[in-house]
Amino acid sequence: MFTRVERARRIALAVILPSSALVLLTVLAAGCLDTKTVRAPAIGAAAPGFAAQDLDGNRVSLAELRGKVVVLNEWATWCEPCRGELPQLEALHQRFASRGLVLVGVSVDGAGMGADVRDFTREHGLHYPIWLDPEKQFALHFLTMGVPETFVIDRDGVIRWRKIGALPDGDTTLASAVQRVLGS
Known about the structure:
The chain has helices spanning 4-29, 80-96, 114-123, 137-142, 173-182; strands spanning 51-54, 59-61, 69-75, 101-107, 130-132, 149-153, 159-164. The protein is α/β, with parallel strands linked by helices. A seven-stranded mixed beta sheet has the order 2-1-5-4-3-6-7. The longest helix is centred in the N-terminal third of the chain and has 26 residues, at 4-29. The chain is globular, with a radius of gyration of 16 Å.
């Protein structure tokens, strides 16, 4: 028997990876991307453009955050590893928001789940902005492998750090990356 966490992880892998691959293959098959240039944005490269809606239905975009240090965390309410890293992300937000950090959670929960995502964030005491991405555009632009995945983007819009998968309890690499990019 699998534990609840193992079962959730297997379900997430069974759903997210094939759907991410399907999106990529669909784009490639449609001729929208040249297969020689399809690669995830690298550390030191400009972050791709990305827009979504916030929990109030307002259009928001990464371009609007230019000039600020940004942490983007792709996650979902059904993802156990995502849930496990939420306290660390909230603590990071509380610690660095006054110094100019903007932490954004990009929820890939399905269409029509905005109210559920809002309830979830309240129940878990999250105070940073949440953007809704039910069409998985973030995954398409950033070529993510699933959830969770986290990026640190500097004031000039350049990716400075990336983590595929959940932050382990007590991990300090994200906080260190944020401190470096904030200039402390």
